[in-house]
Amino acid sequence: MSLIQIEKVKKVFSETETPVTALDNISISIDKGSFISFIGPSGSGKTTLLNIIGALDKPSAGRIIFNNIELSTLNRVAAADFRAEHIGFIFQNFNLLPVLTVYENVEYPLLMTRNTSASERRHLVENVLDAVGMKTQMGKFPNQISGGQKQRVAIARALITNPELVLADEPTANLDHESAFKVIQLMHEMRSKFGTTFVFSTHDPKIVKEVDILHKLEDGKLIGTDNQGGVAA
Ligand code: ADP
Ligand code: MG
After folding, report:
1. How far is CA 166 from CA 15, 35, 221, 227, in A?
2. How far does the centroid of ligand 2 lie from the alpha carbon of residue 50, in Å?
3. Could you give the number of structural domains in the chain?
């Protein structure tokens, strides 16, 4: 079943001296519960595409239908509400808040979006930290854990609101190969455990072995799709 339909999406940045076509006629359907990667060199349009899928930006032409909602019809406030309810984000530089502990970083989205009791929050946070293997580290601050561990915490934070989709823009770009591989493996496990759809971007062909579908981008164009035979959760 399709969660997101990307239909003939084009993005032109025209504020610059010469307009840049960052996305050129992209059409893709993303199934619920699938594990998808966009791969391409720097400048190929990965971030632009993830931003549009994540309702952070709008296409110049074409449509994104997410759960039967056309994202470009949402105004800023509605888009923010939509993101808070449906999407978890993971970033290349982790984006953990340095003054909050691991526990508090993961709790934070619940405080922003839901009316949950302290005991409910404790249960949810401990459960997801346990799932990513970071429960024993929950009192530490981000500067006391490794890069790979930070990304585990960021995965827990993305999952805490039980979103339908997790979007991760080059989540492994700041990690050594072994940590990068483990982060992708963890996302794969979380997809199976929670049924969450995961979409991540990378420029590294070594880490995309486990994905179901690999979309290749170059100069804003979709130049190929490998169906690697994964089965949606
Ligand atoms: P990637 O994430 O694959 O490195 P991006 O999506 O960031 O690629 O960029 C795709 C193209 O769009 C690049 O040529 C980039 O310079 C351009 N671009 C991205 N964002 C902007 C912007 N805000 N203004 C102008 N050009 C942009
Ligand atoms: Mg990018």
Report:
1. 30, 10, 23, 20
2. 9
3. 1
